[in-house]
Design goal:
The protein is 28% helix and 25% strand. By secondary structure, it is α+β, with helices and mostly antiparallel strands. The chain binds coenzyme A (COA).
């Protein structure tokens, strides 16, 4: 799968991404509130095999690159999870960027494209995101920039759950293109 936005390419993992991506995954500042924390170098290949898109795993993570020079900026993608309120499996989107790219609007850019992809291509009826309650930057992007609403105050697996609202289901959001 390849997703393209105004500034970014989101594409499948390749072996030569290993050095840069494993550095981002091991960075405590970036990963402290994501998954179960930073991924040690020794566990990186296992992490990729379990979580990134592959022929066996079409719902997964991908590599986020800068369109200008192909620099690896982080990773983003989709994950199936059990939604505690309905006890049904749903798909969440998420994003992780290396520190130097924070606060430049890129997570918002990725998230809009992911919502469009989830609705149009994955045929989701609703979109979900989850974040650690202390992950204020992520919660701000999910709610204020992307317009999802907190499902409840319940923290499940150390995560709050956010869910799409009606606006995401409008024609305008389906056709988002930047
Ligand atoms: C969360 C993350 C993806 C946000 O990415 P980003 O590209 O910096 O996000 P954007 O630039 O689109 O938007 C960031 C917004 O959050 C705001 N923000 C930043 N830190 C914040 C904080 N501590 N509390 C509240 N808002 C905060 C910024 O001011 C900005 O809003 P503004 O444009 O209105 O000023 C990024 O910080 C990151 O990769 N963090 C580490 C991994 C992670 O936590 N991923 C999310 C997993 S759920």
């Amino acid at each position: 799968m390849i997703l393209e936005t105004k500034n970014l390419i989101i594409r499948d993992y390749q072996d030569n991404d290993r050095n840069e991506l494993s550095r981002i995954c091991a960075d405590n500042e970036v990963m402290k509130l994501v998954f179960n924390g930073p991924i040690p170098y020794s566990k990186f290949d296992e992490f990729v095999a379990e979580n990134f898109c592959s022929s066996k795993n079409d719902i997964g993570l991908e590599v986020v690159c800068n369109k200008i020079n192909n620099e690896i900026m982080g990773f983003a993608g989709f994950h199936r999870f059990l939604y505690y309120l309905t006890e049904e499996y749903e798909i969440e989107f998420g994003f992780v960027l290396s520190k130097k790219w924070h606060n430049k609007g890129f997570a918002t850019e990725i998230g809009k494209k992911q919502i469009q992809y989830a609705l149009n291509n994955l045929k989701c009826r609703k979109v979900f995101a989850r974040a650690h309650p202390q992950n204020l930057a992520s919660i701000y992007v999910i709610t204020e920039k992307l317009g999802l609403k907190q499902a409840s105050d319940e923290v499940v697996e150390n995560r709050l759950t956010f869910i799409s609202t009606k606006i995401h289901l409008t024609e305008q959001f389906y056709n988002f293109d930047s």
